[in-house]
Amino acid sequence: MVDRDAGHDHGHSEGGIDDSPVCPHGRSSGRCSGCQVRSISVCAALRPDELDALADIAVDVTFADRAAIFQQGETAAVVYNIIEGTVRLYRLLPDGRRQILGFLLPGDLLWVSLSERSSFGADAIEPVRACRFSREDFVALADAKPSLLKSLHAVATHELSLAQDHMVLLGRRGAEEKVAAFLLALRVRLGRLGRSQVTLPLPMTRQDIADYLGLTLETVSRCVSKLARERAILNVPGGVRVLDLAKLEALAAN
Amino acid sequence: MVDRDAGHDHGHSEGGIDDSPVCPHGRSSGRCSGCQVRSISVCAALRPDELDALADIAVDVTFADRAAIFQQGETAAVVYNIIEGTVRLYRLLPDGRRQILGFLLPGDLLWVSLSERSSFGADAIEPVRACRFSREDFVALADAKPSLLKSLHAVATHELSLAQDHMVLLGRRGAEEKVAAFLLALRVRLGRLGRSQVTLPLPMTRQDIADYLGLTLETVSRCVSKLARERAILNVPGGVRVLDLAKLEALAAN
DNA sequence: CGTCAGCTTGACTCATCTCAACTAGGGTGG
DNA sequence: CCACCCTAGTTGAGATGAGTCAAGCTGACG
Known about the structure:
alpha+beta; homodimer; four-stranded antiparallel sheet; DNA-binding; 37% helix; 7 helices; 11 strands
């Protein structure tokens, strides 16, 4: 439990590389409207003119693989909308134990609990492109556009529901069940993004999965091997292929 | 894992006993403003005139000890504001395993994830008094009063943060640590309600605590006994007295 | 070609679960 | 009023799932 996944030690690199506006000083129309994740993110709630207002306060940023987006305890007054790549959210205990709270995929919103210091950290686990808003701008826009605020609320409610799923998983499921449920949930989310339902990319390490599921990396590895041995999945480089969906679903027990 | 806590079998009793408005057909002024939990609930965000609007759509209801407030899967189009008593929120797996998602205390908001079918159930674990709103009324009011909507959003954000605490607890803490952390968190919440910080009432059963912490009731019992043996707490009927706060905090390790 | 991070696998340990017996308090009905 | 029952809680002894420690594998990269 001590020299666990040194990934976040790469931190402080403040991965922002490209900090220029999407289309510097350009006209707004069409910027957000061409966004590939708009239809599945908060922005979907906005009318075209509101979208332009949003585009005016948006900055396109990228983070390198393993870059820290922000750290637990930091007061980051920003909101990100993930466009591409995967982000892990985590919370650290004082003694170094880590719990991964969730993985963010394109279309997901990453907000630092408005104005307080963040209770969690976030880093990129593959190259990430995101849309950044300053907290003030974003809040001002939300104040002005009730539809955005309602949409935000819907997002928060949805996240709460995901958090509840996660609690059940952590508190009341066995190791094998956890792994199966994790893969199935990922499958569904990728499906909603229009990605393959069969070959699941796993950009996170075993340690990440373990910290997400409340297990050790060895246990995760053993469970994955077991699933592969039983021909429920097939290990492929960088991910996993679902061979027997029904068997996986039976193992996940819901 | 089969005949666990039969409490929710008492269900379907639909505990609503007193369904009459707070002050039937009466004038509104002063109803909500005299509410003992107003200052700590969503309602705190409202101006006096808005409070009157709220009072007009509020219905005072009570639930008997062990009564189901609503059940998982049910489409309950309501929002409750807890005034008195304790409520447990739970989620059931198909095979009967239960995870308690949280305990609601006076001032907490109980909403059924607006308009969808509820992914969790709720029941009273002692006599409960609550303020009920129909979903439509509540949403309409939130639409009309942005301050209420923002307040709601703040509540959701706060709950998300609590859920994250809970995930860390479930995924990365040992049994003793879990029990200590549970007692400390309860202490803080009761403190905010102006209740004793020393004698903590525990209206929930050991099984409830176990299902909240992801343990078995025997393990909870053993941990409580151990804490008592070490003079960190003292078992008193219906609850627990905190003897050595520092020791408890050390055990909870945060 | 050597190194290193990520992953796998095995052997053993240990925390927690399971099963079971027992105690205490409260309510009920004969 | 007492005998009984029922729920909640406690405690012990033994079983077991997951953790720990350790060795070895593999592919990427300098």
